[in-house]
Amino acid sequence: MPLDRMLGLFETARACMPVVTGDAAPRSDLAGKIIANVFLENSTRTRCSFTAAAHRLGATTIDLLGGTSSASKGETLLDTCANVAAMGVDGLVIRCSDTCGPAAVAGALGLPVLNAGDGKHEHPTQGLLDAFTITEHLGRTDLAGLRVGICGDVATSRVARSNVFALTRLGADVTLMGPPTLAPDDMATLIDGLDMPGTVRVVHEFDPHLEQLNVLMVLRIQFERHGGGGVPDDYRLHWGLTADRAEHLPEDAIVMHPGPVNRGTELDDAVCDGPRSLILQQVTGGVAVRMASLLDCLGG
Ligand code: CP
Fold first, then answer.
1. Atom 6 of ligand 1 has which residue's CA nearest to it?
2. Which of 103, 93, 85 is nearest to 126 (CA)?
3. What is the span of the domain harbouring residue 52?
């Protein structure tokens, strides 16, 4: 996403925050519009967040969930979405396991489509809301010189990919951290050719890098995507952000996690619920970023 569009989204999200927190009245920008949430993979945060965002803008929503829809009978993503679109909806929010599934639907149907996570590929609004949370915490949108670690199950993480694109666009230097099975070296090439002001690298050690980080984003181990292999049995010992390990971060460093958290595996309770954690701020900011995203795609 171009920098000016991202900063415009952040500005809109900032203006939406009082609506999200209940300190300002809901808006009516999308009154009369119907948005369909097509979620063929499970979700708590993203689906509720898009729903809350739509309602705060005056839209109504339809929820179509994988397990209870005819997708479970073998209907394709495109057929599912074409049928929902034929009911006259104004936009679709799609989570699916197909890489680029939302883009294919958008191309075929000519409707506004927001990608709510497509397989291991991208989760754009998560990348945006994470970057927004960081910029709001720091009070600046230029992240030049900021050192962000993204640790854990990077290989299967659409969150990591979208964060790399968003954060390096803003100038941050991102270090992807994990054992080689979970953080493959070729992920250092993610932004090759994209002319980003920030950088990305991959390391296979955790402890020696902690004291250099301003932000540590801990990823969920996605056991369901590994088929029983790839995750070391002693993961927590070497890669879990324990309370002891968090002591080695700089005093003002912050900890983030996109959720859901495997407590006691990648993140200890004391850190998850501690003063460094911005995890619930990510969720609140996420509604504002999704309001801004809906306005960007459907508002005009
Ligand atoms: N962060 C995130 O995508 O969470 P959900 O899977 O609960 O939507």
1. 43
2. 93
3. 3-121+283-298
